[in-house]
Amino acid sequence: MDINDLSKDLAPIISNTMADVVEVKLREYLKKKSFKPGDALPKELELAEALGVSRNVLREALSRLRMLGMIESKKKRGMVLARPDILGAFERVLDPLIIDKNTLQDIFELRLVLEMGLAELLYINKTNKDIAELESIAKKEVNNDNSFRIKNEIAFHGKLYEMSGNDTLKRFQIMLLPIFDYVVTLEKKPTRGLVDHLGLVEILKNGTVEDFKKGMQAHLQPHFDRLK
Amino acid sequence: MDINDLSKDLAPIISNTMADVVEVKLREYLKKKSFKPGDALPKELELAEALGVSRNVLREALSRLRMLGMIESKKKRGMVLARPDILGAFERVLDPLIIDKNTLQDIFELRLVLEMGLAELLYINKTNKDIAELESIAKKEVNNDNSFRIKNEIAFHGKLYEMSGNDTLKRFQIMLLPIFDYVVTLEKKPTRGLVDHLGLVEILKNGTVEDFKKGMQAHLQPHFDRLK
Fold it and tell me: Residue limits of the HTH gntR-type domain (chains A, B) (predicted)?
């Protein structure tokens, strides 16, 4: 029996710092007491005493909640609960150099899933003005060299997500794009799908939502082929 | 000219705490120096001195990075860069009671987009064993009362995402589901799509990826109708 077997059977005890513990306790407390955005929190000194921790440890935990946008400090009112930026923390960790390979692959696939699933929202919300803007983005791509490719991809797909009328989704996909591109460039030669951006614009103008799904599938086919 | 116009023209200056500033500086430093997971960070005292801040402020910022899973403490080696849990922080803020209405709606739509876009991954990765398990979950639903509905939804759709072979996606959708359900229950009476879970299983057994997309669309139709 070697050490690896042993560590498999005896799962390592995760050593939480005091800040970890206090952070969890604070979040549980806010939830249990049904704190709403705008509600004032007890003062630091009271919280530290109630938790039996030093003010430094409490401040560490509060700083985490502040980073998540869950609390903010208001003049005169002190700390209040705030509406968190749900993607803020996600954005901070999306660095291809520190994310493991499996997760990079997962994110690559996640973006494919989003692109494929976008059709319904697009067809509910698209306007002629949107389509005209999208077309002018797609037309700019012709004759552009490869260094502009990523910029164009961001512009075109960013506009598509904007047309979906969903700000969270738009921001989310902009975050995912560099990871997606990182994975793509790890592969050998980039291949292009049978339907290009101008082809997708044409479908949005005259085709049905089913046509668009087929067009997007053809556009992304080289990426799906990689997964097989 | 009222105060609202003024505050629109003069965007409020965001008052960053010292910890905000130090956190950004640390992340920039790690990126610039191409730190990789496992690399040891300089000691706290050195970092605090280089940044010209107190150790307490530095610890606040480090605590944030620790929460994001970007750094961890190792015996003898001190702080090292770690592979962050990319969804950990996201999970912390996904509370329907503190998220604003527009973002709740965005998340509702995001889940619809994921469901609609999942077909390709499912058809690449599905196995007979998976389908049998999915079927047994769907069969358990019959005659269940409404209180089990959410549990069944989680089980069924969780299994679907598991079948996609994408762990990040699976975890992501499990996080989104309570928000999705919260939005659904805000509406009046729940309506059911023309294709139920057993119908989707049947398609996975004998239908094409196109059939599955149509089936999922019919399954989710009542939700899409809400968006119009």
Answer: 16-84
This complex has an ipTM of: 0.86
**What pLDDT is attached to residue A193?**
82
pLDDT above 60 (res B11):
no
CA dist A121 and A88 (Å) reads 24
Give pLDDT tens digits for B126-158: 999 999 999 999 988 766 566 667 778 888 988
Q: pLDDT of A108-156, one tens digit each?
A: 999 999 999 999 999 999 999 999 999 999 988 766 566 667 778 888 9
Would you state the structure tokens that stand for residue B120, as one six-digit string?
């390709």
- The verdict on A148 touching B (C-beta cutoff 8 Å) is no
For the residues B168-176, what does the mean pLDDT come to? 90
Q: Which domains does chain B have, with CATH numbers?
A: 3-81 (1.10.10.10), 89-227 (1.20.120.530)
- Whether A222 and A193 have beta carbons less than 8 Å apart is answered as yes
Angle at A80 between CA A78 and CA A86, to 5 degrees: 140
Q: Do A89 and B90 touch (CB under 8 A)?
A: yes
Tell which A residues from 91 to 110 touch B, by Cβ distance under 8 Å. 92-95, 97-100, 102-103, 106-107, 109-110
- For residue B160, the number of C-alpha atoms closer than 13 Å in the C-beta half-sphere is 24
